TrEMBL record:
The keyword Lyase applies. Its EC number is 4.3.1.23. Gene3D superfamilies: Fumarase/aspartase (Central domain), Fumarase/aspartase (N-terminal domain). It comes from the Bacteria. It comes from Rugamonas rubra. One of its GO terms (biological process) is secondary metabolite biosynthetic process. This is tyrosine ammonia-lyase. The keyword Lyase applies. It catalyses: L-tyrosine = (E)-4-coumarate + NH4(+).
C-alpha cells in the first residue's frame, strides 16, 4: 500500500517539544504514520518567540552570525543589509553539490521527520511556517531527491539537507509517486506556496544531524529484529546438527550477567528441547558458532539500549548552530551539529551486525559439511537414489553467503576515525556519522541476505533431520517456524534457482513477518 492510500487510517505523530522515539520516525518512514505539528497555542507561541527575537536583534544589533555574516570560516565577512535576505538562498545553492545514490523514499521521509523534530524544540529561531512547510511535503508525498554522499557529519549534514531547503523553496527535484518531478511543478500542483527563507532559516534547516539520525533510526529497527531472527536460526541450526541444547542452560547463563545475552539464551531454551538432562550426553561441546551464539548475538542485544539512548537523544536535540534561546533572549554559539554520538552508535552497530553475518556463515559451514553435520547429506541435498549424483543442494548458496559475509565484514572499518580537517580548518574535527550510518545500512542489507540464505538452510536442515532421526523430540517453536518457512520455501529436492526464494525471504525479513519471542 502506498503511504497516500493509508492516510485515512494511519496515526499521526505529533511534533512539539515532547520526546519522540525511534519507532515514531520509523512509522513515518514506512508511511504508517503521518506528521502533524502541534497546534497548542503555547507551543506555537514559543516557536514564534524565537523568530521574533531574531528579527528584533537584527533591527537593534544588526550583527548576527550566519545572518549578517558569511558561514563557517567566512564568519568574518560582513553581509550588507540589502543582501541579508538573499544569504540563506545562497547557503543551500552552493551546497547543491551532493552525489551518489539518492536516499529512498522511506529514508527521505525519516530525514524530513528528524529535521522537523529538531526544529520543533524551539531553539532554532525559525518560523511556524517553516515547520508547517515540512509537514506539507510529508503530507503531499513530495520527497526531495537527496544525494547520499557529501556530508562529513559535523557541520551537520549540510549538503544533503540543502536539498530539503531547496525543495521547501520550490527548487530542485522531488519524488512524487515514484517519479522525479521538478519541485516547482510538484508544489504548484499540490497547492503549496514555495517558501522565502527568513534570515536564519537556511542554517537552521541544514546545520544539523537529521540525515545520520534518520538513518540510525531505520538501522536500529532492522538490527533489533535481527537479534531475534538470528536466535531462532541458531535454534534451528542446533536442531539440524543434533546439537546439545544444554549449552543455553539457565544456571550456566546466570553465572555471566550480561542481560541481553541472558535473554538470547532464554529464547534458545524456549526454542529447543531441553527436558532431558544427560550428564555426559552424545554431544558434549558443540562448536563455538552454536555454543557461543548467545555471546555473539548478545553483544548486539546488550548494545541496543545504549544505541537507543544515543539515537533518541540526538533525535530529541536542537542540533543546529547558533541556538536561539527565546526566553533568555540569547544567541548561543556551539557545535551541536557534531554527530559523534550517532557516528559511534553506527560504527558499533555495523560491527555487531556484521558479527551476526559471520556467526551464521559459520553455522552454515557446519550444516552443509557432511564431516560436521552429524549424519546429514553433503550440501544438505534433498535428492536420493541415482539422482543424488547430479544434485548439489545448497553448495552455491554457501558460496554466496561467504561472499556476502566477507563484504559485510569489510565494511566494518569505523568511519569516525577518518575525521579530517576541512572548510579552511574551521571544521578541523568532524564525525563522519553519515558515512557510518550508510555503512551500517549496507551491512544490514548484506546480513539480511545471509539471514535469508540461512532460513533456507535451516528449513532444509530441520526437515532432513526429522527424516534422519524421527525419534528426536519435536519442539513447538521449531515446528511452527518450519511450517511458516515451508509455506514460502519448498524443500530443495532437485536443484533449483534459489534467487526467487531469497528475494521473497528478504521481503519477509524487512516486513518482520515472523513473530519472535513476544
Ligand atoms: N556549521 C557551521 C556553519 C557552516 C555552514 C555552511 C558552510 O558551508 C560552512 C559552515 C557553523 O555553524 O559553525
Amino acid at each position: 500500500m502506498r503511504p497516500a492510500d493509508l492516510k485515512t487510517t494511519r496515526r499521526a505523530v505529533r511534533f512539539d517539544r515532547e520526546r519522540l522515539s525511534i519507532e515514531d520516525i520509523v512509522a513515518i518512514a514506512h508511511g504508517e504514520a503521518g506528521a502533524t505539528l502541534s497546534d497548542d497555542p503555547a507551543f506555537r507561541a514559543m516557536i514564534a518567540r524565537g523568530a521574533d527575537f531574531l528579527d528584533r536583534l537584527l533591527r537593534e544589533d544588526g550583527n548576527i552570525y550566519g545572518v549578517t555574516t558569511g558561514y563557517g570560516d567566512s564568519c568574518t565577512v560582513n553581509v550588507p543589509a540589502e543582501l541579508v535576505a538573499e544569504l540563506p538562498h545562497h547557503l543551500y545553492t552552493y551546497h547543491g553539490c551532493g552525489l551518489g545514490e539518492y536516499f529512498d523514499p522511506a529514508q527521505t521521509r525519516a530525514i524530513l521527520a528528524a529535521r522537523l523534530a529538531s526544529l520543533s524544540k524551539g531553539y532554532s529561531g525559525v518560523s511556524v511556517e517553516l515547520l508547517l512547510q515540512i509537514t506539507r511535503l510529508l503530507d503531499a508525498g513530495l520527497l526531495p531527491l537527496i544525494p547520499s554522499e557529501g556530508s562529513v557529519g559535523a557541520s551537520g549534514d549540510l549538503t544533503p539537507l540543502s536539498y530539503l531547503a531547496a525543495v521547501l523553496c520550490g527548487e530542485r527535484e522531488v519524488w512524487r509517486d515514484g517519479a522525479q518531478v521538478p519541485a516547482a511543478e510538484a508544489l504548484r500542483a499540490a497547492g503549496i506556496a514555495p517558501l522565502r527563507l527568513r534570515p536564519k532559516e537556511g542554517l537552521a534547516i541544514m546545520n544539523g544531524t537529521a540525515v545520520m539520525t534518520a538513518l540510525a533510526c531505520l538501522a536500529f529497527d532492522r538490527a533489533e529484529y535481527l537479534t531475534r531472527l538470528c536466535t531462532r536460526i541458531t535454534a534451528m541450526a542446533s536442531y539440524t546438527l543434533d546439537g546439545n541444547a544444554h549449552h543455553f542452560d539457565e544456571v550456566l547463563f546466570a553465572a555471566k550477567p550480561h542481560a541481553g545475552m541472558q535473554n538470547v539464551a532464554a529464547w534458545l531454551r524456549s526454542d529447543l528441547p531441553t527436558e532431558q538432562w544427560e550428564r555426559n550426553g552424545k554431544r558434549l561441546q558443540d562448536r563455538y558458532s552454536i555454543r557461543c551464539a548467545p555471546h555473539v548475538i548478545g553483544v548486539l542485544a546488550d548494545a541496543l539500549p545504549f544505541f537507543r539512548s544515543s539515537i533518541e537523544n540526538e533525535l530529541n536535540s536542537a542540533n543546529d548552530n547558533p541556538l536561539i534561546d527565546p526566553d533568555g533572549e540569547r544567541v548561543l554559539h556551539g557545535g551541536h551539529f557534531y554527530g559523534g554520538h550517532i557516528a559511534f552508535a553506527m560504527d558499533g552497530m555495523k560491527n555487531a551486525v556484521a558479527n551476526l553475518a559471520d556467526l551464521l556463515d559459520r553455522q552454515m559451514a557446519l550444516m552443509v559439511d557432511s564431516r560436521y553435520n552429524h549424519g546429514l547429506p553433503a550440501n544438505l541435498s534433498g535428492a536420493s537414489g541415482p539422482r543424488a549424483a547430479i544434485n548439489h543442494g545448497l553448495k552455491a548458496l554457501q558460496i554466496s553467503v561467504s561472499a556476502w559475509t566477507a563484504e559485510a565484514l569489510k565494511l566494518t572499518m569505523p568511519a569516525s576515525v577518518f575525521s579530517r580537517s576541512t572548510e579552511c580548518h574551521n571544521q578541523d574535527k568532524v564525525s563522519m556519522g553519515t558515512i557510518a550510518a550508510r555503512d551500517c545500512l549496507r551491512v544490514l542489507q548484506l546480513t539480511e541476505q545471509v539471514v535469508a540464505a540461512l532460513l533456507i538452510t535451516v528449513r532444509q536442515g530441520v526437515w532432513l533431520r526429522q527424516q534422519a532421526n524421527p525419534e528426536l523430540p519435536p519442539h513447538a517453536a521449531i515446528t511452527r517456524m518450519l511450517a511458516e518457512l515451508g509455506a514460502d520455501v519448498a524443500p530443495v529436492q532437485e536443484d533449483r534457482r534459489l534467487e526467487p526464494d531469497l528475494r521473497l525471504l528478504i521481503e519477509r525479513i524487512r516486513a518482520k513477518a515472523w513473530e519472535l519471542y513476544v
